[in-house]
Design a protein that fits this description.
single chain, alpha+beta, Arc Repressor Mutant, subunit A, 2 domains, four-stranded mixed beta sheet, 8 helices, 36% helix, 19% strand, Mrr-like_N_dom, Winged helix-turn-helix domain-containing protein
């Protein structure tokens, strides 16, 4: 079973509450491993090692921490200490009451991709890169339904599809961060509607790159089909 860094968000918040609101990286990693039931037998790929000798899964809580910091749910002001904020506690309270993650579906809209942690850059560099793209880079002129530019990432693909879905014969039931990204209704030849599980990608080849299971998805919605 493969895990991505977003799978560590909620466990990380829960662990920090368990530790009294904050903890050292060593204590946090130990508790996350226990909480998630991580072990080399059930998660062999997660216990592989990088050339540096670091265990692979331990890279993902660091990315989750940076993402939670950007959302205001963790406090990164104290060096060597991971600390939950009041916003982070509110997220957990909402989850406990509703059994639903309040941030479900947020990542694609922010341009955050689960495979980011596979890149050979630090979490801070990865998220700074996203923010810089959002501020400075655009695609070519598109001019469709009030959308000025062509998509340059998955976030843009989702926005464009949402604007055109009715013309394409779809309705959107929900968008989420878990795979597959979207639950749709698709009009069939009889004029009725069928359920459709869709994954958004900027390039269709990213579906394979992200190691998604095609048996769990009916449709890839992309900007570039390569």
């Amino acid at each position: 079973m493969n895990l991505n860094f977003m799978d560590f968000e909620i466990p990380l918040l829960k662990v920090l509450v368990k530790l009294g609101g904050k903890g050292s990286p060593g204590d946090v990693y130990l508790e996350v491993e226990r909480t998630m039931g991580l072990n080399a037998t059930d998660f062999p790929e997660e216990y592989g090692k990088y050339k540096s000798g670091a265990i692979k899964w331990k890279n993902k809580p660091a990315w989750a921490r940076e993402y939670l910091k950007r959302k205001g749910q963790l406090d990164g002001s104290e060096r060597g200490i991971w600390k939950i904020t009041e916003i982070g506690k509110e997220q957990l309270n909402h989850l406990n009451k509703t059994q639903k993650d309040p941030d479900e579906g947020l990542a694609p809209l922010l341009g955050v991709d689960a495979s980011m942690s596979d890149e050979n850059i630090s979490p801070e560099e990865g998220f700074n890169k996203i923010e810089n793209i959002q501020v400075h880079e655009t695609g070519g002129i598109l001019g469709v339904r009030g959308i000025v530019y062509e998509p340059i990432n998955e976030q843009g693909v989702i926005l464009l599809f949402a604007a055109l879905c009715h013309e394409l014969g779809f309705m959107i039931e929900g968008i989420r961060s878990a795979f597959p990204d979207s639950l749709l209704r698709r009009r069939n030849a009889k004029g009725t509607w069928n359920s459709c599980r869709a994954e958004f990608e900027f390039k269709s080849s990213f579906f394979k790159l992200h190691k998604h299971d095609p048996k769990q998805c009916d449709l890839i919605i992309c900007w570039e089909h390569d």
